[in-house]
């Protein structure tokens, strides 16, 4: 909320989002950044070009959301990127569709799934570690971020298909930094690095 008050209302321009990523990776020396949002439509051309460059050459993981609900018309928005050939077909939950980034971001080197499968009561208690879609498998966003340095996927299809979300901590257990502090260089670099 403080960043919205300082920088302006949402959605921010792609140039602003690119600036945030550039500051995190450049001046702050973050080893990797996962962008937990999907950008299915192009927006400001210069910002989209900067995001495309960061996603192709930087330690940036872009998100895409797989859909697990069988539909008569499968959900297909944007262009799926990344993934690897499925090692063991059928071992990861199968997606029926997706909401992905626009074609200008489809060359991203790292992508991660933010799709989810709610329990029967509608609560989200678990996330698919890997997702199968059209002969390829895709890691969850957190796994893709954790895999950045090594290039290897942290989970294998033979392991647990879903990760149970540990709701054991409240917000005070996490360090939360307003985006405006990153954009204005108001934090010590060691805190982010």
Characterise this structure:
There is one protein chain. This protein is 24% helix and 18% strand. The longest helix is centred in the first third of the chain and has 13 residues, at 45-57. Strand 1 (33-35), helix 3 and strand 2 form a beta-alpha-beta unit. Strands 1, 2, 3, 5 and 6 form a five-stranded mixed beta sheet that branches. The mean pLDDT is 90. The chain is α/β, with parallel strands linked by helices. The protein contains six helices and ten strands, in the order H-H-E-H-E-E-E-E-E-E-E-E-H-E-H-H.
Brief summary:
With 193 residues, the chain is α/β, with parallel strands linked by helices. It contains six helices and ten strands, in the order H-H-E-H-E-E-E-E-E-E-E-E-H-E-H-H.
Average predicted local confidence, pLDDT: 90
> What is the makeup of the main sheet?
5 strands, mixed
Summed up, the helix count is 6
Record field, number of beta strands: 10
Task: Tell me the span between the first and last alpha carbons.
Answer: 24 Å
Which stretches are poorly predicted, pLDDT < 50 over at least 5 residues?
none
Helix-strand layout with pairing:
Elements lengths: L1 H6 L6 H12 L7 E3 L9 H13 L2 E8 L8 E2 L6 E2 L11 E3 L11 E3 L12 E3 L1 E4 L2 E4 L1 H6 L15 E3 L14 H5 L5 H4 L1
Parallel strand pairs: 1-2, 2-6, 3-5
Antiparallel strand pairs: 2-5, 4-9, 7-10, 8-9
Helix pairs in contact: 2-3
Features:
6 helices; 3-stranded antiparallel β-sheet; 10 strands; alpha/beta; globular; 193 residues
